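Before our next group meeting I need something from you. Please put the record directly below this note.
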Amino acid sequence: MKKWLKFSFSFLLIALLMFSVAACTNDSNDKTKKLQKVTIGEVTRSIFYAPQYVALAKGYFKAEGLDVTLTTTAGGDKTMTALLSGGIDVALVGSETSIYVYAQGSNDPVINFAQVTQTDGTFLVARDKIDNFSWDQLKGKTFLGQRKGGMPQMVGEFVLKKHGIDSHKDLTLIQNIDFANIANAFASGTGEFVQLFEPTASIFEKEGKGHIVASFGKESGHVPYTTFMTKESYMKENKATVEKFTRAIYKAQQWVQSHSAEEIAKAVAPYFPDTDPEIMKTVVERYKSQGSFATDPILDEEEWTNLQNIMKEAGELPKKVDHKTLVNTEIAEKVIKK
């Protein structure tokens, strides 16, 4: 009898343990199932988008119940194609792309809902070292610019014009090289000046391939350079998801604002495995010092106006669009208040 009781007790204990493990596993699966999948398409991989990588690295998206997948879609046109076709849910790209889509008569316009960067992120790199640089030194030279119609190129022309330089008359402008190949073209000998993003600009400087002489971000002022956007239909159908997404980004923006360049560089390092830690620190410090990282996700009307002025100056504004038509600030404002 005692042996039977001992056997029964052991059996019961094992059964309870198995049930507990199963329950924990099911609970874990339930939590996983509750995570809302969101796919981001970033226009390029750049330290310029540090808040996005911080949100991923620090688990801010997951804390909001989001399972975020990040993919790099090289170029604004490819990024927007992926968004419109449903290949991605959210795009991180220049706000000008939403205006281009709207001007084409889209029935499902693309809405900007969270700003990430608020200045241009490119730098003017000279092939030769220049101790006392002035913008008029570009006159008569070959300038390797960015893709026509994109924010980098439009800001570049805007800044040149600000300094009395007609980019189509006063210098030889090359802008027909694919975005991914611009740096390689300069490194192989094309042009005397080039407009580059980081960390490429700093890497070139370290390797002696070029020298940073000016910042387009400092020259152009505040502009909604890179924002998270999605289709209006997605926003209506997934309002809670967009709010959670924006909250995660705001947490990351606040973290970036309150931490050092070294700490930020360390946090985003997993997304730049081939970049020298010291280069990353230098790049982050450069962007922080010129106020490139937006401190909150609100894209205000003044920035929107500045964007369209730059597009107009470049001859690339298809039509003027009201701020409220393509920008939703309600979600960002709600997130900040909370």
Notes: The chain has two domains: 36-119+223-337, 122-220. Residues 168 and 191 are 15 Å apart (CA to CA). The beta strands are 36-42, 66-72, 90-93, 110-117, 122-126, 142-144, 172-174, 193-197, 211-215, 226-231. Confidence is low (pLDDT under 50) at residues 1-32.
